[in-house]
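Readers of this paper often ask what the protein records in our data store actually look like. This encoding replaces a full spatial description with a residue-level series of whole-number codes. For reference, a complete record is included directly beneath this paragraph.
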Amino acid sequence: MNNKIAIVTGATSGFGLLTALKLASTHFVIATARHPEKAEALRNRIAELSIESSIAVAELDVTNEQSISSFSEELKQYGQIDVLINNAGTAYGGFAEELSLGDYRKQYDTNVFGLVAVTKAVLPYMKKHSGAKIINLSSISGRIAFPAFSAYASSKHAVEGFSESLRLELRPFGINVAVVQPGSYQTAIWETSFAAQVTAPDAESQYKTYFERISAYIAASRKHYGNPDDVAELICRLAAKKRLNRLRYPIGRGVRLSILLHQILPWRIWERAVIKKLLK
């Protein structure tokens, strides 16, 4: 077994799966899965790759306190945790007026409260030595919000704020905290989460035309979405570093430029550009 131990939440698909499999070459990975059937599928994938000695699969529902408590108890057998990668997440879409409070709560339960709860459960195992790392998956939406993404974007803004504060709190203990900010990538979150959980306006909605144009823009942009392997590679490089000197690590086509322009342009110019692009 590798000496360094890493946890990857939401490891059954997308960035989580790719990261867990790549990281197994340098760390012993505890890969978590919310659903038993997905946990079993992950175990089968690991067996096919003959890397059972490098990855253990643990069932974990980040929205369930009992599940988190049980997971924390399981960690006692490992003694210490070197890397925590908070990847588990979901995406809700729709206009704020038409989304229910329940939609917002479910979005935050996974992306924010689940992330915080897992971090709190794992931290005691990370403070046993200096040099541990917490890598939180944010998004470009954690810096820039777009229409029909208020639930998702605000949850990622919360992740950014939590991570910044946590980094300063844990600095005296030698624990590094960072966020990875992917742009648009070909991952299952848009097919299985966002597509299934989008609240589309009905025929009488004032937002109907706006929504259709946003949807068309997203569909047309998908051919430019990046390879999720690139994000997994970045996460693994960060996990291997002795120290994370930066808080934020943006990645993806046009992400750095978009963040820069969002920071330096007067709001009226930025707003006009966004609306023009979406409604043209």
Notes: The first helix runs from residue 14 to 23.
